[in-house]
Design goal:
Distance between the termini: 44 Å
Shape: rod-shaped
Largest sheet: none
Helix content: over 70%
Keywords: Membrane, Transmembrane, Transmembrane helix
Structural class: mainly alpha
Strand content: under 5%
Number of domains: 1
Radius of gyration: 31 Å
Organism: Micromonospora pisi
Number of strands: 0
Order of helices and strands: HHH
Protein name: Putative superfamily III holin-X
Transmembrane segments: 53-81, 87-106
InterPro entries: Phage_holin_3_6 (IPR009937)
Number of helices: 3
């Protein structure tokens, strides 16, 4: 039966320069792939929030058009006959505009939450990674 145990990782002191360079290259490559995956995930989330906000904003605009139409109808009816029919149309128009205003407000808030579009969490992570590498290089140079 074959021995399936792996040998412990070699200490950096025991490795040749070529092995150290290869190991560093592999670690940097893995780090870049992981950061790109984080960026992709973050951007997808922001895109979804921006899309939802834009949909709500568009819905508010559409209802505002209907409200404007109802207010126009109310003005026509009110001016034509000064009857309760005009008051009813006016109430419908005001309610539609109030709903449109709320939808537009919520839509704007959703779009604002998706800003800035840049992947800020990933950028912060990259800065921290760079600082760790710089710190390790400084400490290695002293030792």
């Amino acid at each position: 039966m074959a021995d399936t145990r792996t040998s412990p990782p070699a200490r950096a002191v025991d490795m040749s320069t070529a092995e150290l360079v290869q190991r560093g290259t592999e670690q940097i490559s893995r780090l870049v792939r992981e950061e790109l995956a984080l960026t992709r995930t973050e951007m997808m989330g922001k895109g979804k929030r921006a899309g939802m906000g834009a949909t709500l904003f568009g819905g508010g605009g559409a209802l505002a058009l209907y409200g404007g139409g109802a207010l126009v109808a109310a003005a026509i009816i009110g001016l034509a006959a000064v009857m309760p029919d005009g008051v009813a149309a006016l109430v419908v128009g005001v309610v539609l505009l109030a709903v449109a205003g709320l939808l537009a407000l919520f839509g704007k808030r959703k779009v604002s939450q998706a800003m800035p579009v840049a992947p800020t969490a990933t950028a912060d992570s990259l800065r921290a990674d760079a600082e760790t590498v710089r710190s390790a290089a400084r400490n290695r140079g002293r030792g």
